[in-house]
Amino acid sequence: MDNYQIVMTPRARFELEEAFVAILELSASLDIAENYIDSIKNAVDQLSAFPKRGRIRERGEFAGKGYREIYIKEYTVIYRINEQALQIQIVAIKPSSIK
User: Fold this and answer.
1) pLDDT class of 1 with cuts at 50, 70, 90
2) At the N or C end, where does the chain have fewer CB atoms within 10 A?
């Protein structure tokens, strides 16, 4: 089985940066914010070996369009698998409270 390449859209990169700032503001700790973001990045990296780990997205933005989602702590990572290119496109990283 080949590993998939992870590709993060500009939107997803921006949302990950926003998450870092939000966590830093809430926790007032650089270590906590960095560890939190690292846990999101690690979960995303695991998708390269297990791309179908996430469930099919059935509601909210990107629903019904072949997108999948995984939950990491209080965040939802939305992605799409490109079988031909062996890529996983991370399209959004949202607080789980936002559908």
Assistant:
1) low
2) N
Which residue reads 């998450």 in tokens?
A: 19
Tokens, residue 79: 């992605």
CA distance 37 to 94: 12
E strand intervals along 1-99: 5-8, 55-56, 68-72, 75-82, 87-95
| Residue 91 φ then ψ, to 5° | -100, -25
Note whether 70 and 54 are within 8 A (CB). Answer: yes
Q: Alpha-carbon distance 16 to 69, whole Å?
A: 15
